[in-house]
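Entry for the shared binder. Reason: the reviewer on the internal report wants the predicted structure included alongside the sequence.
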Amino acid sequence: MENKIIRVAQGKQSTLSQLYINGIFQCYLLEDKIREVKIASQTAIPTGVFELKLNTWGAKNADYKRAFGNLHQGMIEISGLPNFSFVYIHVGNTIKDTAGCPLCGFGFQFAEGDFQVTQSIAAYKMIYPKLVALAKDPSNKFTIENNFQF
């Protein structure tokens, strides 16, 4: 099964990606800029093959439980990233919302040299159950790759 984040474009401080689950496009993702040297909360996660896990503790988890009720079973964490921790796929629209995490959206915009994603909450509600199912599979693998097209 092809579970991937494929980066397709870069802005001044942003990176636009596409999320695929089982080889099928799901939504766009927004990350910070790709950097050679990591700057905390301002750098895209590295390429490679990683795992998804459910993180069921912490303040963000409690916030999402309040916001999404019974849908929420834990934060979707990308695990095994070198020099990164607590990287979640979550809601937000601009790089100000990322803190180094991918944000989901059904659409995107390009303004003043950077990307934004739109309809983030709707996209999250659609992809979340699929990501939970993957995270619960102990053999899940998730690939992050660059394929800049525009």
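Summary line for the report: The chain is about 20% helix and 40% strand.
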